[in-house]
């Protein structure tokens, strides 16, 4: 969806405070989508450098363009709803890439962690948000993003299935470690803050869900459903130890 195709917002049912709280998520979404675009761009370059056969690098380039479009979409939705402009920080992506210098290992790790696993979790969260969203501008934007995220997570799993047989034992062991570490990071980012809110008994305004903000219960359910029903079994199907990566995600793994 192009920004010119977005419907007009309908904020009449909501108070100023409700809108202000809900729209603060859009600049953060824009920043996250730009991070994804940078990952896909790095993945395309790494695939070229590693000699990965086409059409994979081209597909990663297409996904990069999708994520750039998402970035603009999220920024525009935020602007229309009165949010401040997004703030972008490339340093986390640069640090991530600096730790993955070998092209084939970089390709494998980004493909399975950031794309296959990350986009599967993202799809689940965006779907849950769209399910509750009522405000038309919010719902249209989330619907557009979900459609692309589904394709991206499929690209990740299929691409990794093609690459996995070509990896050495050393590379496979490194990927296994990265998968476990990635699962812990995803949990800390996506689920733990919501779990803490639930433990504190913080109230949640249902109007925020209508404006695209996930209730803590919905966020927790969407995250753990994605991991336990989809990510872990698909890791095992690839040849990784999915249950071991999940159960041991906070245990140090020896090199």
Please outline the helices and strands.
Elements: H1 16-23, H2 25-49, H3 56-81, H4 91-98, H5 103-132, H6 136-163, H7 169-190, H8 192-200, H9 206-210, H10 216-238, H11 242-247
Helix pairs in contact: 2-3, 2-5, 3-6, 5-6, 5-7, 5-10, 8-10
Largest sheet entry: none
| Mean pLDDT metric | 96
How many helical elements? 11
Task: Output the structural class.
Answer: mainly alpha
CATH fold category name? Ferritin
**CATH top-level class:** Mainly Alpha
Question: Which outline best applies?
Answer: globular
Number of domains in the coordinates? 1
Q: What is the helix content? A: over 70%
Describe the structure.
The chain is mostly helical and 255 residues long. The protein has one domain: Up-down Bundle (Ferritin). The protein is 75% helix and 0% strand. Helix 2 packs antiparallel against helix 3 (56-81) and helix 8 packs antiparallel against helix 10 (216-238). The protein starts with 15 loop residues before the first helix and ends in an 8-residue tail after the last helix.
Features:
255 residues, mainly alpha, 0% strand, Ferritin, 75% helix, single chain, globular
């Amino acid at each position: 969806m192009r920004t010119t195709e977005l419907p007009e917002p309908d904020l009449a049912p909501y108070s100023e405070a409700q809108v202000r709280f809900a729209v603060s998520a859009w600049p953060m979404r824009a920043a996250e989508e730009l991070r994804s675009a940078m990952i896909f761009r790095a993945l395309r370059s790494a695939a070229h450098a590693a000699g990965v056969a086409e059409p994979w690098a081209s597909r990663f380039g297409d996904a990069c363009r999708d994520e750039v479009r998402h970035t603009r979409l999220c920024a525009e939705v935020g602007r229309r709803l009165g949010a401040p402009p997004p703030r972008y920080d490339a340093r986390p992506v640069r640090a991530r890439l600096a730790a993955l210098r070998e092209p084939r290992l970089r390709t494998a790790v980004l493909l399975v962690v950031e794309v296959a696993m990350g986009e599967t979790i993202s799809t689940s969260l965006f779907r849950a948000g769209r399910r509750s969203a009522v405000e038309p501008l919010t719902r249209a934007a989330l619907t557009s993003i979900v459609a692309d995220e589904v394709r991206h997570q499929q690209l990740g799993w299929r691409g990794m299935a093609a690459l996995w047989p070509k990896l050495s034992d050393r590379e496979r062991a490194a990927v296994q470690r990265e998968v476990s570490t990635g699962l812990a990071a995803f949990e800390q980012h996506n689920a733990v803050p919501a779990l803490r809110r639930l433990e504190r008994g913080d109230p949640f305004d249902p109007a925020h869900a209508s404006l695209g903000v996930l209730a803590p219960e919905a966020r927790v359910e969407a995250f753990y459903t994605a991991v336990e029903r989809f990510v872990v079994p698909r890791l095992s199907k690839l040849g990784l130890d999915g249950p071991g990566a999940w159960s041991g995600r906070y245990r140090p793994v020896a090199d």
